[in-house]
Every structure is written in C-alpha cells, then in structure tokens.
Amino acid sequence: MALVHLTEASAAFAGRRVLGPVSLTVYEGQRVALVGQSGAGKSTLLDLLYAQARDRAALVPQELGLVPSLSVFHNVFMGRLSSRPTWYNLANLVRPFRRERQRIQPLLDQLHLGDKIFSPASQLSGGEKQRTAVARALYQKAGLLLADEPVSALDGPLAAGVMAALAEHYPTSVIALHDVELALRYSSRMIGIRDGLIVLDEDSHRLNVQDVLPIY
Ligand SMILES: Nc1ncnc2c1ncn2[C@@H]1O[C@H](COP(=O)(O)OP(=O)(O)OP(=O)(O)O)[C@@H](O)[C@H]1O
C-alpha cells in the first residue's frame, strides 16, 4: 500500500527551482534513505512529503522543533498533543500523569536519555536534543516517519542505536542521512538526490558504498 505519493512535484525559492520535477511513491514497509550532497534538496523533498502526509506522519526536522523551556518529558509528550483533549494536555503539563511517564520513560531509556527526563531542553547537549526529538517521534507512533539527519550530532555506536530504535518503531520511513554506510545498513531502499533530481533509486541490499559515491 502506498503511504505517500508525489507526482512531478517541484519546489522553488525566490523563483529558483531547487527540487524537481520528482515523482516518488513510498510503500508500507519501506525504509527509505535519502542521500546526496549538502544543498541537493533532501530537506525540501522531506517537506513536500510531509505536506502530503501531515495527518499520518511523524517528523524529526533538522532544527528539531523543541521548546527550550520545557522538560524532555514535556517535549516528548508534545508528539501526541493533537490526539488528546486540551484539559488533558494542560493537566499533564502542570503535573505529569504517571501513565504518561510510564510510556515515555522506556523510550528515553532506549535512547540513553532516561536520566534527563525532567531536564529542560535548553540544558541539553546537541546530541541529547536530537535524541529528545527522536523520542517525540517514537512516542507519536504515526504510520510513517520522516526524519532529516536525525543522528548527525551522535557518535558511531549511539547513532547506530538510534537508527535501530527508529527501525524498530517505524517499519515505514524516509530518513535523510549524510553517512552513506549508516544509510545502507538501516534502509531497504536508497534514494540519491543531486541538483534537486532523483538520480538513484535502488534496493539498498544491491548497493555498496562505492555505488553511492558517484552522486556526491
Ligand atoms: N528557505 C530557503 N530559502 C531559499 N533557498 C533555500 C531555502 N531552503 C533551502 N534553500 C535552497 O534549496 C536548496 C536545497 O536545500 P535543502 O535544504 O533541501 O538541501 P539538503 O540536501 O537538505 O541540504 P543539507 O544536507 O545541507 O541539509 C539549496 O540550494 C538551498 O540553498
């Protein structure tokens, strides 16, 4: 089943086309890695996909979108604000419900962030902020994950752990990654972007790093 679909889509800034035309269908169960040079158009493509699938997608944007004054717990809780009544959200803001803590704590533990649950986001390192945004997406439990460089601030083993967590919670995803090896390891389909166009679209298991490098 197709979860998101673009037909001859394009995007421009100040009259300059930066993406497209691109046509892309992402099917249920596909873990898509988006790779390409800085400025190739990966974030722009993710934006177009999100615009099509806003009601069924969790987004980890490159800028993360955290509220600095709120705790990690509350930032993660925000992943499901729209599915809860306002009174519930406000009450949980003042005094976290035990059942919400019981849902959020294991996600943070999995991301090695468990001891930061009530730290304000403003006091986190770059990598901790990134993992908070990832936890928010895990908590959201949407049908599709869209993530823009979700592990760029993490070192090797931690990056692999976060990619494994994303794969475990989200069978269908589109993730922009600059680390080609990581992209190959955690995706089933590899899409390469160059100058705003799709120049590679292949099963990841058919590719190795050398096959992907020419798009850079
Ligand atoms: N708000 C904007 N205004 C003007 N130009 C923009 C804007 N956002 C992106 N662009 C341009 O669009 C092109 C594609 O940018 P995009 O962010 O999609 O690339 P990217 O592949 O995600 O890059 P990176 O890997 O550095 O995040 C670039 O040339 C960029 O300069």
Largest beta sheet: strand ordering = 4-5-6-3-7-8
Helix content: 25-40%
How do the helices and strands follow one another from N- to C-terminus?
EEEHEHHHHEHEHEEH
Mean pLDDT: 95
Please give a structural write-up.
This protein has 216 residues and is α/β, with parallel strands linked by helices. The chain has a single domain, classed as 3-Layer(aba) Sandwich (Rossmann fold), CATH 3.40.50. The chain is 37% helix and 25% strand. It is built from eight helices and eight strands; from the N terminus they run βββαβααααβαβαββα. It has a six-stranded mixed beta sheet, with helices on both faces. It has a two-stranded antiparallel sheet with strand order 1-2. α6 links the parallel β5 and β6. α4 packs across α5. The longest helix has 15 residues. Bound molecules: adenosine-5'-triphosphate. Adenosine-5'-triphosphate (ATP) binds next to α1.
Layout of secondary structure:
Blueprint: E1 2-13, E2 16-27, E3 31-35, H1 42-53, E4 57-60, H2 72-77, H3 86-94, H4 98-110, H5 126-140, E5 144-148, H6 156-169, E6 173-176, H7 180-185, E7 189-194, E8 197-203, H8 209-212
Parallel strand pairs: 3-6, 3-7, 4-5, 5-6
Antiparallel strand pairs: 1-2, 7-8
Helix pairs in contact: 4-5
Pfam family, one: ABC_tran
GO cellular component, one term: plasma membrane
Domain ABC transporter: 4-215
